[in-house]
User: What shape does this take?
Amino acid sequence: MLFSGKFGHAGLLLAAFGLSAHFTQADHILAIFSYVFASPYRTVRPFINELVEEGYQVTVISALNHFEPIEKAHHIRVPMLDRLMHGLLDFEFDEDPMPSKWDEALWVSHFYRASVQYILSDSGVQQLLHNSSAQFDLIIMNTPHSDALCGFGIHFNAPMVGIAAYGSAWIVDYLAGNSAPSVYEPMSPVGYAYGSSSLLEKWQNWIYKTEEWLLERLVYLPPQLELYRKYFDNSHSSFDEIRRNFSLILVNQHFSLGRARSNVPNLIEVAGMHMCVHKNCKLDPIPDDIQRFMDEAKNGVIYFSMGMEIIEEWLPKHLKRVLIETFSKLKQRVLWKYDDLEPVKNKTDNIFIRSLMPQQQILQHPNLKLFITHGGLLSIIEAAYYGVPTLGLPIYYDQFSNTQRMRIAGVGQTLDINSINVEILNQTIHDMLKNPSYARNAKKMSARFRDQPMSPLKTAVWWTEYTLRHKDASHMRLAENDIGFLQYYCVDIVSILFGRIVLTALIVIVLTYKLLNYVIARVPFSLSIPLLHLG
Assistant: This one.
């Protein structure tokens, strides 16, 4: 036995005291989420719940909806975040179906300013900020674009852990301290040509990236700085340094899902931490009618879902008709997640429609052959984990890059939802079902994705505890002077190699210019000599 003899009882008492001390003096964590959609809350809630189960004292600031209460956590609800969601639903996208990048950025900036404003002005949050006895050992918050919330880290003198629920991008790299982020991944890839290889396309990507940097500086940051100074009154501090002071950022992505990135040590990939895949989690059984519908599908099943936030009114008017005509002609059975209250007309027996679908349970069913999706990050991650080919119909934001990444990896295809018709959709579905390479590549991706030392959720918790144990993780950040933009992209080497050539060319050009000026200046004088004799 571990404890024996005369020290047995004393050892047990010491162990009990130590366990008691762990729970009575547990670290206090403040988690702040400005989300108004359901999907990012699905990402962070299992993480927060796991921290609570580990014995940490967690206070959560969030919207009232979408984040189900955690019994042992303290919740501060901000109802105005839910009203902001209602405002989004009332937004008329049809007025300008193709807004410019700047118009889109102004709208996004207004949205994030409103969400942060609602949090900081909430009475419960204000009571917390003015409570002199409130102390926290760690701040967890969503990033990017909610920069004013970094004031909580300064206010409570606590390290910050960020959560990039929508995956990484250049701005996440920048906040993590990576001064030379990947240039091929824009932040909001609307109409972005992913996987560009030609010189012209790379040049266009540079222009795109420069535009986004300008948007960040001119559109997104000013309102966040205004809120930071209003509620935290630290105008003497460098706001840019404060917002880049994350000890750790948990990124909802993984290198096995079609792209390896040049991450710095404090960027931790945790794609799939929302999934019920660790040993202590069990999925609810699939409903009997859905189970029977899939079990009896002799030719397989196709699952169609446009996610949790896609409102039917936002979709092209012709899409429903195209889907009905296409699905009704298939020999496969179709599970259709459909949120509209209006019933679907002319539905055939091979189509099963319901507003709520147990997605993970459906994706792991052996009869499932294809997942038609909007390309939301959670859906892409789940499809990759269960090895299901995807047909993407992206609508906005990261969905374009998500679906293109699956296409390039050979596990999916993507279609333009605005120009789709019955012939195109029907042909694409048949091609994907007949070509075994899609299923084969999807299984390979699944095997790579699953091959990790810990589950994504356990990985997220371990690195969070690492930050708590060391009271910081600044030693994981890349020192700004160690490697900069010029060195990372070898611009300094290029300058050395071509510097002499350029300098020589400049000297030749200058001398030639001077010589020509001299000659031109002498021409009128030389021509005037014979003219004198003529006179």
Observations:
- The chain is about 50% helix and 10% strand.
- Residues 490-534 form one domain.
- The two ends are 128 Å apart (CA to CA).
